[in-house]
Amino acid sequence: MPQVTITVNGRDYRITCGEGEEQNVIDLSKRLDSMADDLSGRLGHLSEGMALIMIGLTLADSLADVERERDELLARVEPMGVEAERAEARDRAHAEAEDQAAAVIAAMAQRIEALAAHLDQA
Which sequence ranges are marked TM in the entry (predicted)? Predict the structure, then answer.
């Protein structure tokens, strides 16, 4: 498996990753390093453990925000899906009604033709 060396909070780490994931791991590590720099700038020097905890909390908070937004969007979209299903059901009912009306008209046309043929013979 491939390995990459990343630097976070001034320390190098050798990371094993999946084939083709090297650049993604490097890009993610740059985000972590940026977060560590930002935290150090705001809070002063942090131990490795404290930096890990603070970055983890920051990421967990961001994830919670995204999950809340997702849930709000799903709550807004769900009624649209229900309405779309109702509209499809109405369309199917209209199509069935049109098919039934066409069948009735066709049957009436056959009866009229039969009556006309009978009158022509008379």
Answer: none
